[in-house]
Amino acid sequence: MLIEITPESYDLELDLRYATADNITGRPIYGRAACYLHPDAAALLARAVALARPLGLRLRVFDAFRPAEAQWKLWEASPDPAFLADPRRGSPHSMGAAVDLTLVDALSGEPLEMGTGFDAMVPESHHGDLHVSVEAQRNRALLLGLMTAADWDFYRNEWWHYQVFRPRGRYPVLTDAAAGTRMMPGATP
Asked: Is 113 an active-site residue?
């Protein structure tokens, strides 16, 4: 049901933060670093990659499909509905219908300045926040333009989060076992 997204197959970079301690919990959530999306979302991601390429930019993905049990771990660490979907309701990430990402200069490999880091749960992470530098505002607008041109919807509180339009009711919330992704610790091949 889900498609694996690799740097080779999609011409992008992966920096899967929840497979490392560099996330809001301070410890790895995923036992295996892997990136998956629903086929609908994967097609939109390919479109965004194609739109970024002529501008000398690449996409760097921080997270995509997030098993439902991983959503619970994030919620337990920071139950803030302004930045995390309540796992009882389900997250578009747990449907394979959302992606967290940024833009990278294709030549230097350096990420563009966005004003805050990924998963910074502060008002400055909001798309329209004017407390970040003009450069960060410009880069956020560039990312927003690329992603909306590729037919993604955005979440206003997180400059990094994009999702398929109206995912609830279209896609089921999946556990690691149901998705067959083997991303969670202890999952067997």
From this structure: no
62-120 per-position pLDDT tens digit: 999 999 999 999 999 999 999 999 999 999 999 999 999 999 999 999 999 999 999 99
Of 184, 170, 41, the closest CA to residue 100 belongs to: 41
- Looking up residue 55, the CATH number of its domain turns out to be 3.30.1380.10
- Given the residues 4, 8, 124, 158, the one annotated as active site: 158
Write out pLDDT tens, residues 54-63. Answer: 999 999 999 9
Q: How many domains would you assign to the chain? A: 1
Chain centroid offset of residue 64 CA: 5
The widest CA-to-CA distance across the chain, in whole angstroms, is 47
Could you give the CA distance from residue 20 to residue 103 in angstroms, rounded to a whole number? 20
Angstrom distance (rounded) from CA 38 to CA 171: 9
131 annotated as a binding-site residue:
no
What are the structure tokens assigned to 54, written together? 């002529």
Altogether, the residues listed in the chain come to a count of 189
2 falls within a domain: no
Q: Which alpha helices (H) appear in the chain, and where do they start and end?
A: 7-10, 39-52, 68-77, 134-149, 176-179
pTM of the prediction?
0.96
